[in-house]
Amino acid sequence: MADPMRIRAQAAGDKATVRVLMAHEMESGQRKDAAGKTIPAWYINEVSAALNGKVVLTAEWGPSVSKNPFLQFVIKGAKAGDKVQVSWTDNKGDKRSDEATVS
Amino acid sequence: MKHWSWVAALALLPGLACAQKTAADSIAEYRALLADGNPAELFEAKGEDLWKAKRGPKNASLERCDLGQGAGVVKGAFVRLPRWFADTQRVQDLESRLLTCMSTLQGLDAEAIAKTPFGKGEQANMEALVAWISAESRGQRMQLPQVHAAEQRMYELGKRAFFFRGGPMDFSCASCHGEDGKRIRLQDLPNLTKNPGDGVGFAAWPAYRVSSGELWGMQRRLNDCYRQQRFPYPGYASEVTIALAVYMGVNAKGAESIAPAIKR
Questions:
Q1: Residue in A with minimal Cα distance to B46
Q2: Among A44, B51, B111, B163, which is least packed by CB within 10 angstroms?
Q3: CA distance A9 to chain B (A)
Q4: Is A34 near chain B, with CB under 8 Å?
Q5: Contacts of B42 in chain A (CB under 8 A)
Q6: Which chain B positions have a beta carbon within 8 Å of A4's beta carbon?
Q7: Would you call A66 an interface residue with chain B, using a CB distance cutoff of 8 Å?
Q8: A21, A66, A67 ranked by CB distance to B41: nearest
Q9: Would you indicate the residue range of the signal peptide (chain B) (predicted)?
Q10: Going by DSSP bridges, is the β-strand pair B183-184/B90-92 parallel, antiparallel, or unpaired?
């Protein structure tokens, strides 16, 4: 099981800025280990975010995204008390989902 | 977002103003952008859990560990380390103190942990612990004690180690960090013989290294300094690394700690 994400969601006016920090190796599949063997690719390939259960963002990611990725986006119409849920799936099928409340 | 609008505003200024933007400004800008999503936070969360988790042969947590401010007090401990500890009769930095606590409280093998490569096994846990403990003192000012004779001795020892030249390139720490305004490529180097300022030098470690995606404690940072000088590795939690930390830490008195910071 992957480590939890850190999600911060702050409302300002009729928008909320969401900042997400994910814990993931994001191994590109291009690197080699000390023995010269290729390290297998292992990266997040699907990200989605939902506001009170309604999907507001989906993204397809690839091996070029950095280790421990940081994602920031703005949701229109979100207000304090709303729930923001962020989920990802990696290419090994591992999943992680975390929730935060807009403040 | 704030930073982007600032960049846009800058682009509108006449050419002269743009030309005055130095490499250091660009790096500061880059750091400010990164700091918003500093992955050190992930390590902090892990470290807090580790501090409270019952582990080791004695199945105990670190919550009774004395970091110098009394058993279990974490807030404010980081900016007062390294310091003298009566129970071990040694001057210890955060990491060597944690080794002591891990062996006395939890029954873990301190020697084995010291020999573990950085980022592996218990050393990975150490990274998380130093991230959380340093974060608990974020914003406080460095104030290492120099009361005990051993602390003063370690300062003198650290000063000598700092200026000691050797190795195939005849380097010392002072070769790069002994004057103002030095740099390696685009990287500004702090002058560690005096207080380099808030959040610079000693007051900016531990830090998350973007290039390796790992959190580096002071021990690992110093280990890498020795590698760059082509010196033999000093050994984890060895006396010379603690002495250097005392020297740099005392020099940085009054500087605001931003640890765990983020580095390229």
A1: A3
A2: B111
A3: 13
A4: no
A5: 3, 6, 21, 23, 68
A6: 45
A7: yes
A8: A21
A9: 1-19
A10: unpaired
3-state secondary structure A34-85: CCCCECCCECEEEEEEEECCEEEEEEECCCCCCCCCEEEEEEECCCCCCEEE
- Could you tell me the residue ranges of all domains in chain B? 38-263
Which residues of chain A are modeled with pLDDT < 50? none
Confidence of residue B7 (pLDDT cuts 50, 70, 90): very low
The fold for domain A6-30+38-101 equals Immunoglobulin-like (2.60.40)
pLDDT of B131-140, one tens digit each? 999 999 999 9
Mutate to test the interface with A, among B3, B36, B38, B42 (most CBs of A within 10 A): B42
Q: What architecture is domain B38-263?
A: Orthogonal Bundle (1.10)
CB distance B126 to B62 below 8 Å: no
The pLDDT tens digits of the residues spanning B155-206 come to: 999 999 999 998 899 999 999 999 998 888 878 899 999 998 888 889 999 9
Q: Which pLDDT does position B19 carry in this prediction?
A: 52
> Is the minimum CB–CB distance between A52 and chain B shorter than 8 Å?
no
The shortest C-alpha distance from A23 to chain B (Å) reads 7
CB contact, 8 Å: A64 with chain B? Answer: no
Asked if residue B14 has pLDDT above 60, the reply is: no
Q: B9 by DSSP, 3-state: which?
A: helix
Specify burial of residue B242 (Cβ count, 10 A radius: 0-12, 13-18, 19+). buried
Q: Which residue of B has its CA nearest to A67?
A: B213
In angstroms, the CA B195 to CA A23 distance is 35
Phi, psi of A9 (to 5 degrees): -130, 120
Asked if A71 and A88 count as a contact pair (C-beta separation under 8 A), the reply is no
